[in-house]
Structures are given as structure tokens and as C-alpha cells.
Amino acid sequence: MSTMSTDKKVIYVFGHKNPDTDATCAAIAYAYFKNQVDPYNKYVPAVLGEINAETAFTLNYFNVEKPIKLQHLKPKVTDMRLEKITPVYQMDSIQEVAKKIVTTAGKTLPVADENDRLMGVISIADLVPALISSRQRDYHDEIQIPVSNLLNVLQLNIIQGQIKEEIFKGNVYVFSDLTYYQRISKNGLIICNQNEYGTGFIFSLEPEYIIVADVHDNTMLKTMPDFKGVIFSSQKNIYELVQAINLALPISDLVKKEDLEYFALSEDLEDVKKNMMSSKYTSFPVVNEHGNIQGMISRSNLMDVNPKEVILVDHNERGQSIDGIETNRILEVIDHHRIADFQTMGPLFYRSEPVGSTNTIVCKFYLENNVEIPREIAGLMLSGILSDTLIFKSPTCTPIDIKLAEHLAEIAGVNIEDYGLKMLSKGENLIDTPPKKLIVKDMKKFTMGNFRVSVSQVNVGDIEAFQNIFDDVIKELERFCKENDLDLSLLMLTSIVRGGTEIIAAGEARWLAEAAFGLEKGKKSIFKKDVFSRKKQVVPRLMEAAYM
Question: Among the CATH numbers 3.90.1640.10, 3.90.105.10, 3.30.565.10, 3.30.200.20, which is that of 9-75+308-424?
Fold first, then answer.
């Protein structure tokens, strides 16, 4: 199968909850088709639950990977339009950070470590004390400043010497404040004017750095070959240089690192909203799974969310779809069921046909658009048709299902009868499957007059094994009916080998099953030969009984 560029927009294609073979194969086949005809997006097939044994057999037979499993598609932070912000670093100068922060929405910036991972935040309020400070530093205050900060903020030019360390660590002195006999600390920095520099006395103090202020022509300064330190010049006057020292200091001491509030791209938007509303902050950093900064968000960003785009196959009811479907943009629906409680926020492509399988409709797309069908895709679509029509025995089967299945079987290189029986024989193993799983695996709820009814259907390979777990299944079905406030719950165990369906009934309105299928009073189940379809042979009879 073709591979798609990862920078394309992802559109998920999936069937209903409790996926069966028709839904799973339709999702894979339709996603493949869309990727062939639409080069601008990436269509990803998915399932909303665990696939059954029959579907697993199909995927293995045609060597196709299982689709990804989606738990929900509720909006996450990654769906928001983040404010793209370049982080600052703790050794950046106060002046540099101040210039960036005043042009930033929210007046807050994330602070990154050397690996671009979030380590803290800094706001304009944190910088204010340093920006308004005008005091000269005490000579006893040793400071640490990246030399690059000094060069940039103090606008220094190197006159003589070579910078050996990235960080200046020492004391800063103004030459005019020093007494004749005063000594300076080791590695000190002295600021002087041109006259003071010219006397030569400053070199006897053995500073690490000398900054000569108010220099507009560097050629006027003499070098001192015996001096082992570094001599700088600046056009700023002494007062300006003293003030600039404060602004050249790194922001490291001002960064907020404790009780840091931030969000990850994977967090649900509902949780983010709750945390934002209870926070004293207005802007928050966003990080990926490695802690790398991705941007900033604020409360206003909550109104600017990119909804995920999806395509539904083999269903259209909200209750059968993924949790959070109401927050997604539905682009298309490909289905063969009745249209139920289906509403969308905008127009969409909708194709529904009265055929036995969604894969029949998907196959039509290939033929109508002259898209070549690979063997494995043909095998999946064939499997979906054979599964939903029970190898053409279901009353939902139509001539077009049979015609396209024969075409697909030829491409897939399989015999319909032989392959179909092998596939259907891989139905649920009744002995090893918990009763509750049998009930909810493919369960649909209906409102029939004043009655709330559930009908579950499971294709089984060995229906005779049902007798060994009969009592456990009945108890679980009764419990399920009560816990879900249902009037009637039916479980259909359909066997193509035996040629019919065992119908098991539970609930206060069990008389509906008695009226619909001739179930004897006191009996819990009945085998109905040639009954294969929930949609055409079970639900309609229950409806008739409910409205009698």
C-alpha cells in the first residue's frame, strides 16, 4: 500500500463501536481509496474497539495490519491554534528578554534549558524591578554575566586581548570611585573614561576587563602590550554603562520555576479549560511528550480549536460512533443502514444504499473512479460482503452484493464458498468468551413504542457449545437488561453452518419475543432456522409485536 507524507492533514475513517468485519474492512478499503484520489490529505483507517476473531482471521489471511484503535476524538491541546513563541534561556540578558516580552501577547515567555525543554516562565512583572533599578552595585557584590551579554547590551568593541571565558564572574568597579591605595578583587571589571585610561595607573590594578567609556574613535586608544586582560571601548558614557550592567545580567534569578503551570499537547481540552479558569495566570506554556516547548496558550485560545475531521462508514447514529463525535467535523458518511439521529454542523457527502454490506458501496467507488483494486483490498471488501450477508444467505443480500463479491473474489484469488465458510467458522468461541462480551460485542438499542429494547448479534462457529454456558449467559443477559433500564434484551447467536439463529430473551417484556418468534412461555431461547438478519428478520417482528 502507498505511504503518505506525514505533514498532510490526517482524516480518520472508522466504523461503529464494537467493530465487525464489514465496518473494519470498509474503513481500511475506503481510506485506501481516498488516499489514491486525494493527494492533499492523509486518510487513516481506525477502529473503535477490539476486533473479533472473524475480522482478525481476515486481516491475517490477506496480510493487512490492524487499524489503529481510537478511544475518543475529544479535542486536545494539539487541536488548538497555539501562539508560536520562541523561548528564551536563563542566561539571556534582562534587556534582550524585555524587548521580546513587550511584543508578546500575554507579556509572558517560556524559559527553556539547553535541550529546549521547559524549565520555567518569566513575565514582564518579573522584569520590572531590574528595569527600573538605577543603583550602582556594591564592590563586594560579585556578579556572573555571559560575556556575550556584555558585548551586546553595553555595545562593546574589543580593542585588545582575547576573551577566554564565556561567563564573566567577578566585581564591577567605576575607576573614579576607587581610592589611590584600594585594591580590586581578582578578575574584576573596571569602567573608566579616556583620560583615566591614558594615565596608565589603571593597569597596575590588574583587572580582568577594562571598559573605556565615551569612545567614538577607537584609533585614539593606545594598546598596552604587557596587559594580559581584555580592553573594550563603548560609545556609552559611564553612567549609561553602569545602568547597562544591570540590564546585561541574565534572567536566571528572575525565572519562575516553582509551581509551574503548563499543558501538554495530549491533554483534553475540557481538563485544560477547568485548570485555566481556576488559575491566577493568564498565559501557559505548551510542551510535547518530551517536554519541548511548542508555544503558549491563553483563555482566548479556547475559542479557536481546529476540529478533527472524520469519515464514518457502516453507521450514522451518534450512539454507535466514537465518544466526542459532536466536536468533530464529519466530512462523509458511507452506510447501508437507516438514517437515525444524525445531525451535522455543516454540509457533507452522504451515500447510503439499501445493500447488504458497506463494502459493496465502497467497491462501487473504486469502479466508478477507475481506481485499481489491489489483491489485499479486494480480499477485505469481499470479506465484509460475505460477513454481513452470511455468504448471500441473509435477506439483506442484493444482486449487486453477489455481483461485486464475485468480481472481488476473482481479484483476491479465492473461492467464495470455501473462503467464506473458513472466515465465518472463526466466529466467537462461546466457551472462551465471557458472557458480557457476547452481549455487548455487537449490540444495538431500539425504542419500540413504550419499550426500550437491545438486540445483540454474534456470529458463532460452534453453536452447540452454547448449551455448556447457557445458564451463565441467561444470568448475564438478565443483569445487563436491568442495569441498562431495558424492557427486553435479545442475544442472537447466528450460525451459517447450522443455518439459523438461536434467539435468547431476557427482561420484563419477554412476551414481545414470545409474540414475535413463538418462544414458549417459561423457555429462555428458541432456534429459528433461516433467520440471519437482525435488521430485516428480528427487529421488524419485535416492532409489530410492540405496536399490536
Answer: 3.90.1640.10
